[in-house]
Protein 1
Amino acid sequence: MIAARLCFTGLLFISAPATPAPAAIAIQTGHSPGDATFNLPPVPPPALNDAATKAVFKITGGQADSHSGALEVLHDGHIPASSDSPRENFFFAPDSAGAALLIDLGRGINLKSIATYSWHQAGRAGQQYALYAASGGKDGTQPAPDAAPDSPGSGWTLLAKVDTSAKGPGQHAVELSGSPQATLGKYRYLLFRPQANPDPSGFGQTFFSEIDVTDANAPEVQRLRTEPLLDTYQTDDGKYTFTVDSTRSPDLREWFGKKVMPAVKEWYPKITALISVPGFPPPDKMSLRLQEGEIVPGNRGIPAYAVGGNIVVSSDFMRSEANREAIGCVIHEIVHVAQTSHWGPQNHGRVPTWIVEGVADYVRWFLFEPESRGAVIHQPDDARYDASYRTTANFFDWVIRNHIKDLPRKLNATFSTGYHAGLWRDWTGKSVQELAAEWKKSLFP
Ligand SMILES: [Zn+2]
């Protein structure tokens, strides 16, 4: 699905009331209900190596929500994978009166700009905060003022008050900068005082995704890529085309192209030859997208999934399993793409999941990488034919070797003809329970 994108932007200059007052501070905002990359002009995309990257972030008022990510998510250069990724954002608990976040830049820095990014599908998107700054004394060595920032002589300078809550759900970005002639001033400490968005159910605390601080005296920062990074691959006969999207994980682009795609190009035609049924050609185009963070919100640990001809792969899983499970996991998913030719809405749910997953794991563990012995069953109690994934794959392997050579194609055909347990007797003369008993006996005589 291609998300529709609309951008709303605003630009206004305010004069900060406190002293020493910067001449003028420009507040620019960007918003999009559909973008997923923080491409929200005129605010630039999040920076990767700005002055906040190594700053110390500390909560000095209120508490983090128990579902929030750690403070690190605010300055790690990574953006959330989706519009509802609590662990990839930082947000305060609902009852956080006096919520405050202190950023210690370590030394006085001549500030070019400060930018805040947030993303949520509902009431946690808008940003409402007051931002204060303190110099840390003449040489920037004093601790941050601990007085209430609005009290007279507190040592804090109010830089800006921001409110983007009226723009609604989606991605929000706010950038504060000096006038064209001047910076925001030289400061060591920043104090954010966020306020919850109006939400009667109490879920209005903003999902802050990233906070950037740029140093006017540092080299130009690197920014997150918002242009798509796409590579196209084809089988040698030109029959199948694969598009790899590494926009979010450019570090994996070369490795994926060199290590994963040759296996995909070699095995997708083999898989289609193994399972495809006349009249149901498998998709001849497939997209593979590398995604950071939780690829299914709220389900950490899902390494990949396929929907139709689109595969989404966890970049974290690819990195940590590069020399172990990564390629086999992608092979499993491309089996699902080949199965897809039958998955019209009318066929959805006609075939039990254990069969769908069992075939995918059969291809992976018994054909693609038998040497890794990933589907060996160690305990008799584990030998259940419908336990799905690699256990079912082991059962299918036994049935294929002993009874029905073209079982994968027969099973795939049931996506259109319908599956029922009686098919096993039609194919082998034995019920699935009888076959399973024989299989178990062969494993544990
Ligand atoms: Zn699967």
Protein 2
Amino acid sequence: MKIKIGNVELQNQVILASGTVGFGLELNAMGVLDNIGAISLKTITLEPREGNPQPRIWKTPSGILNSIGLENPGVDVFLESALPLVKKFPTKLIANIGGKSIEEYVTLTQKIGDKVDLIEVNLSCPNAKGAGLAFGTNPDVVGELVSRVKAAAKVPIIVKLTSNVTDPAAIAKAAENSGADAISAINTVLAMDFDLKTGKPVFANKVAGLSGAAILPIALRVVWQMAKSVKIPIIGMGGITCADDARKFFMAGAKAVSIGTQNFVNPWIGAEIAEELEKDITKNQLRF
Ligand SMILES: Cc1cc2nc3c(=O)[nH]c(=O)nc-3n(C[C@H](O)[C@H](O)[C@H](O)COP(=O)(O)O)c2cc1C
């Protein structure tokens, strides 16, 4: 069950996805993190962000739309207040970072240093103007940003990519060529909905990110395309609700999986999937 990202060993291949578990304090109090490979904390930015106006979450027939807008207290508050608590977790810690410029990503990386086990560079958030997705859609920009962050990083870096591009494999390749230790994919899928009462888009930001069961086939396709073009490990995510969904990511070429929206339905889902996958190994039924 153990896997390595750079020189960091995870006790198993199941990760909890950024933005769906906050800073993990509630889940840790429940004991959920004991058998999880790693937890990716909510994206942190240089300055505090209040996030987008309500509504921020909207139900769809098979998943949710969100437009949170990267609400977070900023890196300094994170380091002072949250880090001492999350350092005690019985799992590996991934700090997820988002910036408005390459310099901001570099500064965040320097400030975090080796205070966590891994850094996830979020180049794929569709809900924050001028941040995230603005960088993740062009292979040249991804290449420059990743090499600058890698040069500043004291821990291995995971580059989180989007499906909202024509050629996801080319973006993954650019990240690998520039020193990424792993890729994580996918972030939410650009989408929208209308409110029948007002006749207007549901969200102030108009567009939002779709996650949950609806995006599983999209995520599998993107991970499969990326896996054919890179050698570094891919953390597959998008729409996982059960162990069989996770198994499909391994079949597509992922080396680890991450669980997001389903945490809202069942906070134990990551631990349950890890337990199921372990049975595959003991039964020698690994199909990946
Ligand atoms: C409410 C919500 C907030 C999210 N916030 C972040 C975030 O801050 N940073 C990030 O990299 N991904 C964020 N994501 C994306 C998830 O980490 C994940 O990539 C995506 O939801 C697909 O996985 P899922 O279908 O299992 O949820 C968020 C997703 C949701 C639903």
